[in-house]
Prior knowledge:
Layout: E1 3-8, H1 13-16, H2 30-46, E2 52-55, H3 59-71, E3 79-81, H4 98-105, H5 107-115, H6 152-172, E4 176-181, H7 183-194, E5 212-216, E6 222-227
Parallel strand pairs: 1-4, 2-3, 2-4
Antiparallel strand pairs: 1-5, 5-6
Helix pairs in contact: 2-3, 4-5, 6-7
Amino acid sequence: MPKLVFSRHGLSEWNALNQFTGWADVDLAPEGIEEAKEGGRKIKEAGIEFDIAYTSVLTRAIKTCNFILEYSDQLWVPQVKSWRLNERHYGKLQGLNKKETAEKYGDEQVHIWRRSYDTLPPLMDPTDEGSAAGDRRYAMLDKRDVPGGENLKVTLERALPFWQDEIAPALLDNKTVLVAAHGNSLRALAKHIEGISDEDIMDLEIPTGQPLVYELNDDLTVAKKYYL
């Protein structure tokens, strides 16, 4: 039975400041480091042994992946990093305080920007400060493919090829897989794996640093789902 473990990165510095983060490359907060280490300890206690790990190209997810593997005594496990597992891009909201943004635009509008499946945030221009267009880690992409903002629908559309090309084949080969990524990239994949509706996905929250285990059937449908 294939086994898949999701881990949202530990609390980041901007999480701690209640700021929209998205593709901004911020580090883990001290609390987030401890969350990631504890996730690794829980995985070790559960006896879960990984064959491969996948993560994004953002520091907070990479460090979380490393801590999980280190504290489960599996730091040697091969890792694959991909921009397709990045957090959703929050456009011009990136760096803004969530409370102050809600006071400016209203709680309902901010909730829609954060949780709706297909509503885009205000888009960031490639020339804006903070745009990923000039970032070397995305140099292989056509400039038109570097987002200026994403909703969950777009996040799933760019994550799904990586699922189909990399993660699903590993699971079909009966490998045990770790995906250490972000709240929204994991929500997008969970929507696909679990068949969650566009409406119900708004209510799905994946907590930081808490490993989510999927035990899968041979056709990769979910047999069992639980948090450690």
